[in-house]
Amino acid sequence: MGEEQNPLEVLSLEQLRQRRSAKWRAFGDDVLPLWVAEMDVPLAPPVSDALHRMVELGDTGYPMPAAYAESLQRFAAQQWGWEPDITQIRTVPDVMRGVVEALKIVTQLADTVIVNSPVYPPFFNYPVNSGLRVVEAPLGEDGRLDFEMLEESFNLRTLGGTAVYLLCNPHNPTGVVHTREELQKVAALAEDYGVRVVADEIHAPIVYGEAEFVPYVTVDPKGFSLVSASKAFNLAGLKAGLLVSGTESAAELSELPKESAHGASHAGVLAQTAALNEGSAWLHALTQGLEANRRLLGDLLAEHAPEVTWRQPEATYLAWLDFSAYGFDDDEPTPGAESPVHGPAKFLLKEAKVALTAGHPFGTGGERHARLNFATSPEILTQAVERIGQALARR
Ligand SMILES: Cc1ncc(COP(=O)(O)O)c(C=O)c1O
Q: Do 252 and 329 sit in the same domain of this protein?
């Protein structure tokens, strides 16, 4: 495969149905799966080469993570004009385990974690399972950070203990990229209220032309960020993530338990290092393909499901669709709920044979919504939206 080829146009539906990952196995063969954040692409050639070498050599021991941290230094310098010092970076098992480790550093048990709903459901579950309380500061009507709401929630910390703010940038599910000004405002507010900030930046490598990703720790030296190549290179099954500190929080990284770094898999470290070091050309082709799919999705929705409302994401391959106009008004949001099927997603799975991610578990703002993953071929995307349109027309 040439690096300039659109990776979204390589695998056929028949090939994809042979996959054994969650996206393709959770539902029957009559369902088009556009739900969990896996992509229908082959591996980037440098990643595939690294994994082949690993298998040929039987190189399946414990990870040596230094190269992974160095690959992030290079990637961040090239993509975002920022080179974190190596002392600011630690390997963690994956991004969500890394979030938990960062929260452990900056909170005490029974402290509060503030999240911007609607948000990636594990932002509720993981802190709660670590004994923390989660408070929502919902996004504004315009889909962006609502600073009044944020300040109000930062104030809540006076009810007991301290608070930490778990920021998602780019934001899952809306694909909003927080601007430098917004992040500076967050940092100033956090400083005023003594709130520490942990930013999940797993979607940062895929940002479209009109937006600029700004690494949080570049505006807040006390912050922490989590990054990995997992979403942008489809490596969710090859576990490894990176926790990055700001310049003033680097010393706190020594509080990480030793076992934390051991949770990353050697295969994950090898694959993600290859992706960050050598995957830029492939990532560029992918981002162009996704940008074309984003346009295509807009055209398809306008034609087949014109009452669905959405904002084009500035990043990610996720589209946050509002089905309110079609009368889905009965279910309440259930932050962090396990069951993936409520509201429009439940209806569309049954009636359109298309699997989307239900909005309910994303918390307040998730009602009447579903999330569509457009990291698939234009053909599958077209078929799926046609089916959605036909099912909605029968409602
Ligand atoms: C915002 C966000 N964070 C974390 C993850 C999961 O990352 P990991 O598998 O490395 O824990 C995802 C997966 O989709 C995500 O969207």
A: no
User: Per residue in 240-287, pLDDT tens?
Assistant: 999 999 999 999 999 999 888 889 999 999 999 999 999 999 999 999
Taking the C-alpha atoms of residue 155 and residue 158, their distance in angstroms, rounded to an integer, is 6
Boundary of a domain, candidates 229, 257, 278:
278
Where residue 333 falls among pLDDT bands split at 50, 70, 90?
Answer: low
Residues 230 and 305 in one domain: no
CA of 371 to the centre of ligand 1 (A): 15
Helix axis angle for 378-393 and 343-351, nearest 10°, is: 100
From 116, 120, 198, mutation site for ligand 1 pocket: most ligand atoms within 8 A of C-beta: 120
Among 242, 200, 203, residue whose Cα is nearest residue 92? 242
pLDDT greater than 60 at residue 177: yes
Q: What is the reported pTM?
A: 0.96
Burial 266-297 (b: 16+ CB within 10 A, else e): bbbbbbbbbbbbbbbebbebbbbbbeebbeeb
Considering only CA atoms, which residue is closest to atom 2 of ligand 1?
A: 202
- Is 107 within the bounds of a domain? yes
Query: How many angstroms separate the alpha carbon of residue 239 from the centre of ligand 1?
Result: 11
Instruction: Specify if 2 maps to a domain.
Output: no
> Which residues surround ligand 1 with Cβ inside 6 Å?
37, 94-96, 120, 168, 172, 200, 202, 228, 230-231, 236, 241
Structural domain includes residue 99: yes
Tokens of 193: 């209220």
33 with 51, same domain: the answer is: no
- Distance between Cα 303 and ligand 1 center (Å): 32
Q: How far is the CA of 339 from the centre of ligand 1 (A)?
A: 18
The pairing of beta strand 224-227 with beta strand 241-245:
antiparallel
Tell me if 285 sits within 8 A of 6, measured CB to CB: yes
Count of domains for the chain: 2
pLDDT at 338 over 70: no
Question: What are the CA-CA distances from residue 2 to residues 7, 47, 384 (Å)?
Answer: 10, 14, 28
- Return the pLDDT at 156: 72
